[in-house]
Amino acid sequence: MKNQIRKVLIVGGGSAGWMTAAYLHQALNREGMPPRVEVTLVESPDIPRISVGEATIPSMRHLLAVIGIDELDFMKATDATFKQSIKYVNWEHNNNTFYHHPFGRNRRQPIDYAGLEWLASDRKIPFMETCSPQPIICEMGKSPLMMGKWDMGAPINYAYHMNAQKFADYLRDFIVPKGVNHIYANVTDIDMRDNGWIKTVHTDQAHQLEADLFVDCTGFRAKLIEEKMGVGFEDCSQWLLCDRAIAMHVPYDEHYPGMVRPYTTATALSNGWVWDIPMQSRRSLGYVHSSQYISEEDALKELLAYQGPGSEALEARTVHFKVGRREANWKGNCIAIGLSGGFIEPLESTGLYLSDLGAVMLAEHFPQTDEYMDAMAFRYNRILSNRFYEVLDFINLHYCLTKRTDTAFWREVQKPERITERLKAKFEYWKMKPPSQTDFEDQLYPGQNQQNSNPSVHMGDKRVPIDTAGLWNHESYECIMYGMHFDCQAYQDRFGEDRPKLNVHPQILHRLQQAHAKLPPHHVWLQQFVGMKNYPGNKTPKGWV
Ligand code: FAD
């Protein structure tokens, strides 16, 4: 018999739970139409959220727009700042060199030869600066928005840095008055139907919560998908060695650096890297490292040295994590979104993105009746697993292109067994030509293994994962590869030692002139529009004071 799918129960009230609740409620219950779903979220009053997840990517703006959130309101409530790029410091060599991975790049018309042109040049200008003004806009410390009405042509792409705890609270306070039911209680037991689907969830407050669909947002605990549905976890730590982060907040009241950088900085240290995320009232730092290679004590010392004098008094906490994915994000009537569904270390800020994707895809594949459940689950799992491996390869890329040999950790991450098979196939191919758009149309590279190494775990799907460039296309690959001088020696042989200078495209130069004149310093914009405090010691250029 066909049963309509109407009731959704989300277990867990971290960022993933509230993003999913808000998105499903707003995307499926369109104004002027009869409500399609009733969403309830139950969260534990005792189990804290993970409370990291402070840097985002631009997809967050789509999520906020669908939910109906006003940007300024969101930024005020979550201590948010703009993020235009990630600046990678000391990744290729341990010598204070850096490159940016910005959110925007000018696409050359009618043909995009940016990679090849740069390889054929003297390479004195960093690759990304030849195809995007954004690295320099970031180094100027500029906001991506003007003080007045925008008159600079195409907009500048950006995302946010924000307080993770405040973000979940903000979503809750926004969406509960609009009709999402909210319960504070611990889920203790789960009853099953005869067909292996979840029937009822019991709490320590004597609730018996029935639903048609159950979303597991219980974080690394994976209370429903793992404990009850028995879906296994595919460990990916072979390719990404880090498993801990020491996190701390550096308040501006005592440690204001004189500006708010409009980008995240990811600085490679001895056995991992540190995130440096600026918000309106503090910076967030976290040393992501491998416990196999460095003790917690030494990692903390290194993090304090990174921050500098006065940092010993700051509170630090260690977060443990495991890199890998749920063998199926959706089984029966249970869907895992957020950390319960898998995690890849935060180098490119993809944690919240994967929750965002999980929620958006659930709305898109929302089954009208239980008859459609398996078909929707099949497609959903395929999309989510493709994207997971896309992210895994891309993060893997940052490590394995290093030329650092100063510690055992950096020597280890370059070894062939630490590079995914898919990425190796891409590298071989991209030694012959730089990446281009069509490489991702039907991604299978010469020599790539076409057999799924473990078909049983992917719910019967025997195909290898496909990189659909859903998140990162050839432009992002080029950015990291040429930011870290991938295979440049081979092109040296092809183009010779005496290569010509490359002229930066006039459009980029024009954009930089405009940015210099028209874009305010980031902190000036934040003070004006979202009420950031005016900390003493601001390095504000003349004309903007
Ligand atoms: P949690 O925040 O752990 O929430 C779990 C929820 O489940 C809580 O509300 C808890 O109370 C509830 N719960 C658990 N058990 C029960 C139960 N039995 N009954 C009721 N409720 C229960 N992502 C980014 O996008 N950018 C970043 O910069 C970034 N940095 C990160 C750094 C680190 C070190 C880590 C580990 C992650 C990072 N992430 C980042 C990922 C991001 O933190 C998570 O994707 C995001 O916070 C979602 O977490 P969650 O909601 O799945 O889990």
TrEMBL record:
Keywords, ordered alphabetically: FAD, Flavoprotein, Nucleotide-binding
Binding residues annotated for FAD, in chain numbering: G13, G14, S15, A16, V187, L339
InterPro entries for the chain: FAD/NAD-bd_sf (IPR036188), Flavin-dep_Halogenase_NPB (IPR050816), Flavin_halogenase (IPR006905), Trp_halogen (IPR033856)
GO molecular function: monooxygenase activity; nucleotide binding
A Pfam family per the record: Trp_halogenase
PANTHER family noted in UniProt: FAD-BINDING PROTEIN, FLAVIN-DEPENDENT TRYPTOPHAN HALOGENASE
Descriptive protein name: Tryptophan halogenase
